[in-house]
Design goal:
The protein has about 230 residues and is an alpha/beta fold. The protein has helices at about 1-5, 10-20, 60-65, 75-95, 105-120, 135-140, 190-205, 210-215, 215-225, 230-234, and strands at about 25-30, 35-40, 45-50, 70, 70-75, 100-105, 125-130, 135, 145-150, 165-170, 175, 185.
């Protein structure tokens, strides 16, 4: 799924060119700034949301907002609403008997989570890369699909909206890449504090803001290739 999410930023023409051998049926739904690809084959129905790659605090202003509607981030809900009628019509027409797989990066990851929640098929799976928090614990606990969440070290977007406003992640398994690109499971808060200092220090030496550079989908893509996630999913 990292490969799909990475190439979602290239535009429909290049996206189709890249995946024409793997997927014969590729379509895009776009409205109000929300872009979504749907790929179908005999076994799978894949929904891919294009995200954003922020480079400053201004770019993540919408993610930081903490207004909720029925326990869900209002801005993310509104973005999904922009394309929902078209998406659900296509799902009802073409997804019957297929495995539903949903994915996305950044804002696209949030939309992938909410799309999965609306369908709420316990047999579906959702892969997110650099996802912001999407809803309250009560709302997330009602989500029946299986969620695989990927986080790269100090990725700033994964920390918004803040937990103290009641937001949390939907994650059945979290894959965390540390400051050296190594996989880590079962980490605690003290470990994360040390990782923050290491990553921030290296970012300063390179003249970069670590939290933003760690959010790049290109970075996630390279890490997943290195750890053979790409090979496993193809």
């Amino acid at each position: 799924m990292a490969r799909l999410s990475h190439h979602a930023y290239t535009g429909l023409k290049d996206f189709k060119k890249t995946f024409k051998k793997d997927w014969k049926n590729i379509k895009m739904f776009s409205h109000g700034g929300t872009e979504c690809y749907v790929l179908t084959c005999p076994k799978n129905y894949i929904v891919l949301f294009r995200g954003t790659e922020p480079t400053s605090w201004e770019d993540i202003k919408a993610d930081v907002q903490f207004r909720r509607k029925q326990g869900i981030h209002r801005g993310f809900k509104s973005a999904l609403d922009d394309v929902w009628i078209s998406l659900i019509a296509d799902y009802n027409k073409n997804a019957n008997g297929k495995q539903l797989v949903v994915t996305g990066h950044s804002l696209g990851a949030a939309l992938a989570t909410l799309y999965s929640a609306r369908i709420n098929d316990p047999n579906s799976v959702c892969y997110t890369f650099g996802s912001p928090r999407t809803g309250t614990k009560k709302a997330v606990n009602k989500m029946l699909f299986t969620a695989y969440r990927f986080r790269n070290n100090n990725d700033i977007v994964t920390k918004v909206p803040p937990e103290f406003f009641g937001f949390t992640h939907k994650s059945d398994k979290t894959t965390y890449f540390d400051v050296d690109g190594k996989l880590k499971e079962g980490y605690n808060r003290w470990y994360m504090i040390k990782q923050w200092f290491k990553g921030t220090g290296r970012g300063i030496l390179k003249g970069k803001v670590d939290g933003f550079s760690d959010h790049s989908m290109g970075g996630y893509y390279e890490l997943c290739k290195r750890k053979r996630f790409i090979k496993q999913e193809n």
